[in-house]
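Memo to structure team: turn this sequence into structure tokens by end of day. - J.P.
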Amino acid sequence: MEVFDGGITSPKGFKAAGVHCGIKKEKLDLAVIYSEVPAKCAIAYTQNKVRAAPIEVMMKKDPKTLQALVINSGNANAITGVQGIYDSKQMVFLTAQTLGIRDTLVGVASTGVISRFLPMEKISTGIPKAVQALGKGPEADDTAARAIMTTDTVKKEAACKVTLKDGTVVTIAGITKGSGMISPAMKVLHATTLTFMVTDAHLTKNFNRRWQDMMDVSFNVISVDGDQSTNDISVFLANGMAGGKAADDDPAFWEGVRYVAQQLAKKIVIDGEGATKLIEVMVHGAKNPVQARSAARAIIASSLVKTAIFGADPNFGRILAALGNSDAEFNLEKVKLVLRSNGDSVTLFEDGAPMLIAGSEVEAAARRVLSHKKIVIDLDLNNGYSSGEAWGCDLSYDYVKINAMYTT
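Reply from structure team:
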């Protein structure tokens, strides 16, 4: 696998653009991603029962092939009733009409403030502007990535190349947005983060299961604040323009997909609203992978754990309590808990007994570990051979300030 500094237009046949149409005061707020040929797709949607209009439209369409995506930021078009559904359909229709393709080949997504109607007169003029600006390369990558941002402080993109078993070199790339309201639980056919990944590899129409597997080890194991959005969606497009045989069962291909998905997921938590530290939870010795991920996610989603990390407080009780809220099976007498960072490590709990005593050198060492910007919580359940990971960030004073001032 070759990792490189690329963006959404890196794979063959993909173009993109981001423009300002007026939803936001000044920043880019409308993006179009386009494939020169129809691309097979897999899509994961939010499991929130309150779904935004574009999610409802996409789930009803249930597309297996797409050629373009139109995405707006600054307005979620959520809880907007019949008008919101109509507006999302209009975005699809206008994009298809401008590109000269069928509306069944266009997907739609929105992110931003909830319960406000879309300014369709601005979007109607913005879509032709975005289509006209479609291009390849760093500028196109940059504008598209920035046009889907809301409270994000940085754009988020990743790319890699992999060589398939038949010698074909394919490219995988993606962009994502999200820094708050992040606790995705995305399921194929039934994912606020918006994620769009593309590849020029050839895939069959039956790669939904593999896409779900990628979600389960990337976006579905991150947490910023524990809130699942009304608008979460994750789209993967494969246009086959690199040629070669189908990559569905090629391990190298899916390793590349996993890499890009995990890089994007980690960039979301690093940019979490008010975040000062990246937290990685590593669970070993679980009965099976599902239980390992459940344990990791329960810990990473705990507000008490997040605030303890922010305050550099080695409160292992909060970590173990969060573990107890997971679906993982374990015997506390066998659990080992270690904190690691920057080459240092300290054991907090082992063989059913705390290693940390107030005022001890262990406590001082734990506080030193927690003073770093990346913290690893390492848990061995000693109940099997499966592992799982999850990523998140701390909760700081600034998180409260940001969300007290920003209308969602």
